[in-house]
Amino acid sequence: MRSLSRALALLAVGFLSLDALLFLYSGLSLGRPGLVASGVACALVAVLVGLSWRRYRRAIAELEQARRDMRAEVESIRELLRGKGLHN
Question: What's the number of CA atoms in the CB half-sphere (13 Å) around residue 8?
């Protein structure tokens, strides 16, 4: 799952970067400010996609760590109950 999300993020960033480059080149070559604006917009969206993916990965890592911590806590409670002769 991790490699799939990474591949999709890289594909989106690559596609948007190529669009930005082509829009900027066309806009500057033809003297059309609308194409230049589109190129700048694509570049900004590419950066936002990259930053969003990093934030998503950080949130997923925090959730995985919290899950491991909860599992360890449950195991310690089970051990405590076994030590007292209560089996659950």
Answer: 7
